[in-house]
Amino acid sequence: MIIQPKTRGFICTTAHPEGCAKQVGKQVEYVKAQKKIEGPANVLVIGSSTGYGLASRIVAAVGAGANTVGVFFDKPAEGSRTASAGWYNTAGFEAEAAKLGAKSFNIVGDAFSNEIKAQTIELIKKELGQVDLVVYSVASPRRTHPDTGETFTSVIKPIGPAYSNKTMNFHTGEVSTTTIEPAAEEEVRQTIAVMGGEDWKMWIDALQEAGALAQGATTVAYSYIGPEVTHAIYREGTIGKAKNDLENTASVLSDSLSGIGGRAYVSVNKALVTQSSSAIPVVPLYISALYRVMKEKGLHENCIEQMYRLFADRLYAEKTEVDEKGLIRLDDWEMREDVQTEVTRRWNELSTENVEELSDLEGYRREFFQLFGFRTDGVDYEADTDPNVPMPNLRP
Q1: CA-CA distance, 369 to 177, in Å (whole number)?
Q2: Rounded CA gap, 308 and 306, in Å?
Q3: With 304 labelled, which of 30, 49, 93, 394 sits at a CA distance of 20 to 30 A?
């Protein structure tokens, strides 16, 4: 079939297997060109098929030579429907991992469930014995609690008064004003239940109780803070409440891991184009302006560059540098005063008429479509392509 992008709002409903594989290959080549990391030997990545989770798995396998287990919830092709991008990404990763000689295993299913946790632990104990790094990078709009059966749905809303600010349709480049009504208390509770730290803690507790964590094991989850212009909809909104919970969980986990000399961190990363960030009003316009400024200053990083810096310069450096709250700050370049001053200046001027001039709108669009394997150099998108790509090392 001829596979072309089909979009619905901030979602692309198709993905291209060759394009996804090439994007993974580019990340692999970047890590190969960097200094080897004296890091983990056996790594579990929960949410391993896209974005920071995928990049973490690549850095662990390629940069540190680690064996990896990836847990993700993606679907293969079926009939005229392509597989999800995460499926193709992981298949592409497996093709690269096979060249390295390290072990690699994949588990597809609901990471929030007790069943997937049990399957993963059984696999780790059978194939690897223990893991010494657990990366938690789950992004989902809903979660069913494994013990109570209650299903929670997250929302992206401010807390307090209604919020109005600029936003952008990145497909058309139209800049407009959006107003978002505040969240109800129940919506805040449910968002925390989906995106907070409870499931991360459940994973670490289950792994530790099963003896599947090595002495000195590390776990890390990912968060975002961002500038004041996004705070009302992000950091001070429902998502921010969930991220606060996630960050507080790191302290709890550090205490529980102290008996095995372990440690838990939250890494606050840079704003990047992801399917999740594309869904948040205001954020795509901010990212477009940020990209333009950081590229002009030679400071721009993508997912793989951020994750290599996390492993090499933070987690596995002589000393893991954290801020006063114990957070790893990989957003340090984004939040530099000169960067934010210039982004703010441009933000105040941005309109439909000048968005191409003042921001990196085209770069945003390109990266969005590349998430799904499109707009990738070296791919013939008019060629007949088989969407059915097998998943190597799929367990059980």
Answers
A1: 25
A2: 6
A3: 394
Chain segment 263-300, per-residue pLDDT in tens: 999 999 999 998 888 888 899 999 999 999 999 999 99
Burial grade of 146 (CB within 10 A; 0-12, 13-18, 19 or more): middle
Residue of 234, 265, 286, 364 with catalytic role: 234
pTM: predicted TM-score of the whole model, two decimal places: 0.97
Tokens for 142? 């809903």
Would you kindly state where each structural domain of the chain is located, as residue ranges? Answer: 7-158+187-280+300-332+373-395
The residue among 297, 145, 327 whose CA lies nearest residue 220 is 327
Mean pLDDT for 113-125 is 98
Q: Which fold has domain 7-158+187-280+300-332+373-395?
A: Rossmann fold (3.40.50)
Report the percentage of the chain scoring pLDDT > 70: 100
Q: Which pair of tokens denotes residue 306? A: 């951020």
Helices (H) and strands (E) in the chain, counts: 14, 14
